[in-house]
Amino acid sequence: MNHAVQEIKALKKKKRSDEALQLLKRIASQVLPIMRKRGWKVQHLCEFYPNNPNLLGLNINHGFKINIRLRPHYDDTVFLDYNDLLGTMLHELVHIVRGPHDATFYKILDELSDELDQLILTGQKGYSAFDGVGHKLGGHTGLPLSTLDVKNRALAAAEQRRQVQRVMLPTGGVRLGGSTSNQLEKSLTPKEMAARAAERRLRDQKWCGGLQQEESTGDNEKAVIVLDDDTTHSGRKRARDQDDDQGTLTKRHQSTWICALCTFENQELVLACAMCLSERTNAAYTTDNNNNSWACPQCTLLNSMDTTTCDACNYNKA
C-alpha cells in the first residue's frame, strides 16, 4: 500500500494522549497533498517531549522519523497552538530533501507554504493521509475530524505564517523567495540581505533540531499507533542503507561548534554539548571541516576564515 505516513506514535504516559493522536493525524492530513505531489514518505510521525525546552521539531534520516513537540515545556497537560504545529511540520518536511537552514531550504519552505495556502483556498484536503485506520494499541478508534474545523484552523495557520514572515521584512511584507523577491533585492543592500537571512536561520536554529542521523532527545515513552506493519521493517532497512550511502559525504562536509565551557567539538546540529551537557550559547563558534569558513554564533552567517569580524552583524570572534 502506498502511504504517505506509515506509523504514528503518541506519548502514552502523558495526559490527553487520545487528543494528541488526533492532533498528529490532523497535521498529517493537512500536508498530505504536498507530500504526495513530491513523493515524500514519513515512516514514523511521533509526538515527543524533549528535555530541551527550545526543541520543537526533529527530522531523523531524511523523513524516516519526524518528531513534533505538541505540548509546551512548562505544562504537558495542554497543547501548543495548531497553527504553530502545522508550521513546524512544514519545516521538518523540508528537511527530507535539505538539511541546513540556508537559502535553498527557505526557498522550498516558502513554496510549501504557498502550496498549502492554495490547497486551503480551493478546499482540497488530505483526510486519507494514512489510507487506513489509526488506533492506539488496546484502545478504540477516534471520531472523524470536522472538515470546517480543520479548514478554519488551517486558514488561521496560513495567516499566522504570513505574520511571522513579515517580522524580518521591510514595510509592505515582501517575502524571501516569493514572487516579489526582486523588490526586496532592490530595497536592501547585500549586507542587509545577509543579515536578514542570518536572522531567520538563527531563529530556526533555536527550536529546530534539523536533520539528524539518529535520535537523542531524552524522551522515549511512546504509545504506538500502527497503520501499516508490512512496510515498517523494509522502511527501516531503506533508511539504514540511505544513511550508509551518505555517511562519507556527511562526515566530510559536516560543520562543528566548539563548546565555550569545555571546548569539546560538537556536531553543528546538536543543541547541547555531548561532553559536559551545557547548552549551546553565543560564546560557541562554528567551523567547517575544510577550514574555509566560520559561522557567526550571533547571526549564523558563514564568514571567511581570514576575517575575525562577522560581515553581517559585526560580531568579533577574537
Task: Note the topology.
Layout: E1 5-10, H1 17-38, E2 42-48, E3 57-60, E4 65-69, H2 82-94, H3 103-121, H4 147-166, H5 181-187, H6 190-207, E5 208-212, E6 223-226, H7 232-253, E7 256-258, E8 265-267, E9 286-287, E10 293-295, E11 302-304
Parallel strand pairs: 1-2, 2-4, 3-5
Antiparallel strand pairs: 1-6, 3-4, 7-8, 7-9, 9-10, 10-11
What does this protein structure show overall?
- GO terms for molecular function: metallopeptidase activity; zinc ion binding.
- Residues 290-318 form the RanBP2-type domain.
- Keywords: Metal-binding, Zinc, Zinc-finger.
- This is WLM domain-containing protein.
- InterPro entries: WLM_dom, WSS1-like_metalloprotease, Znf_RanBP2, Znf_RanBP2_sf.
- The protein is of the alpha/beta class.
- It has a domain at 5-122: 3-Layer(aba) Sandwich (Collagenase (Catalytic Domain)), CATH 3.40.390.
- It contains seven helices and eleven strands.
- Strands 5-3-4-2-1-6 form a six-stranded mixed sheet, sandwiched between helices. Strands 8-7-9-10-11 form a five-stranded antiparallel sheet, with no helix packed on it.
- Strand 3 and strand 4 (65-69) form a beta hairpin.
- Helix 1 (17-38) crosses helix 2, helix 1 crosses helix 3 and helix 2 (82-94) crosses helix 4.
- The chain is globular.
- It starts with a strand and ends in a 14-residue tail after the last strand.
- The model is unreliable at 126-143, 164-184 and 215-253 (pLDDT under 50).
